[in-house]
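Data deposition worksheet. Section B asks for the primary sequence of the deposited chain exactly as it was used as input, without tags or linkers unless they were present during the calculation. Section C holds the resulting structure in token form. Section D is free text for depositor observations; keep each observation to a single sentence. Incomplete worksheets are returned to the depositor.
Section A, Depositor: J.P.
Section B:
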Amino acid sequence: MILSVILLFLIVVAAGVLMLSPLRGSTAPDPDAVPRAALEAERDRLYSELGNLTDEARRPDLERRAALTLRELDNLPPAPRSHAGRTRRMALTGVALAALLTVAGAVTFVPRWQLKSLDAGEAQDVLAVLNLPRLKAEAERTQDASAYMAWGKAAFDSGTYDQALAAYGNALKLNPRQPEALRRLGILLLTGGERTGRELSPDEANQAALLIRTAAQLAPEEAESHLLLGFAFARFGQDNDALAALERYRTLDPKGRDADEMITAIRARQNTKDPTLRTYAASCASCHGPTGAGGLGPSLRASTLSREQLRQITVQGRGAMPAFPDLSASQLNGLLDLMQRWQKEGE
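Section C:
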């Protein structure tokens, strides 16, 4: 930000110098301007009379007076040279350069200043949108798989999904074993009905899911493969498979939060059948996470507390954790069983 402010300041100063410099080069004052003007007027008058002379007897006197006038003009110091033309050229050059510098500031400083007001993700999306025409033209010109992938990534990340479909589709025609293109094209096809309002046929849905599964097989260590696979399983109602894929995503990307809502929604569906999970969701999930992996509160899966210690903290509370003395015996025992099972499963 400081560098951008310095750049704008330099641009303004440079523009000001260029605009004012012609004024410094203006013509110096002529100390003999008054007598010079009078002699030039006398010279012009005498020349006019000589040009229109009808009485030749007057010619010698007029020629003598004209010669004396010219001699007096010659005796004066030379008049300072006029810089009007040079000043005009400098002024026009200054205006042109100032305009160029202003444009440079507009396309460098101003966009960067505006991007500073956005968070990192929003700024990246804006830059991706700005780059789309260039990336699209490059891909169509070179017909190269990597160029189509760069265009597809920028389009997908900025939410320009029609271009992402075209770019990833062309990339897969050139190289069908590209996990990013497979999974992103699959999820775009699977969710296409939500954008277009057209109902997806079973065959289309299965084809989209196949693309995502293939991507996960080709790139099992890429977090996004499991994230999108989890979303696909959830759409087909395969909650256990979806949870497994989403938990794998969180293992590969511990800071990723894109699966939280889906995990919570799946757990909520499961909680309607399991009273212990229903109790946990109502009393504990907001702090310890939907699967006990932690959030505002610590991870229950990483806990080393004994069952009695867990019971005491749950009933009496500790630190920022509130007490839950009103839990029934069955609810409390169910929660203790759940926490101990998670301790065995680990993170």
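Section D:
DSSP finds 17 helices and no strands in the chain.
The two ends are 41 Å apart (CA to CA).
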